[in-house]
Predict the structure.
Amino acid sequence: MSEPAQVLRPRTKYGWAAGDFGFNIFWQALNLLMMPFYTDVLGLDSGLAGTVFLLASLWDGFADTIIAAIADRTRSRWGSYRPYLVFASPVLVVAFALAFLTPDWEQGGLFLYALLSQVFLRTAYSVVSIPYSSLSARISQDADERASMAGWRMVFAFAGGAVVTFAMPQLVSALGGDENSTTYVLAAGLVGLVSLPFFWLTFLTTSEPPRLVEANPRGFSLTGGADDLRASLAMARHNGPLMRIFGCIIVSSLAFTMTNKCLVYYVTYHLGREDLVPQLVPFALIMNLLF
């Protein structure tokens, strides 16, 4: 006999969804603002800046798998996933601020610093975001409730992206602009601190049933991991609809990434209105949500 559908309390549903406001402070800054920062402020060659994003994205694919396995095997009195929202999120704020340092180095040094700082930022982001995403399956086993949670998550996500793309340029200008070498670090640190209450809110308004926590695997097995990988690849190879979905995800992700990376450049250089970046970029994100 199947279990009755679980209706979530509003505080649980919205509390979990609010966490994505905090995540998109970092993610949309990385997508929309960091490439122009590398080329126009840090002085990194555009080809090298693009290579930084390529290598850091490849690192993501490897690191995310390891982080997911570690999170699944975490045991604490708060569950497997919720502790990361409290204890790892301050490291994410620090990594975000460090990514906006402007050392006065040659191109090789700038490239190495940009790459290492972005790898650190993406790793710290994954350490918090992967447990957060996994938490939704713990909160509710009901498909309708999880779909509702995902919808509210997107609302908070776009709100967080709009806030950071508006606030970061304004803070940089208020703190002294490009003349002050610490301006971007301070602005990033202040914006990053805004994310912490949203992560804490998610921690406080959600819970993980102990029976589901104990269903997670324990320990690590290289042989078992290899067997699971081979089984997954075999399943994917014979699942045409799944592969087509993967293809659509890849194409849409590429299109979305290229649009985001070009948006600030388009407003700054094609329209010649750098002063409108804080207004037009958040507006574009909101229009993307609506349409």
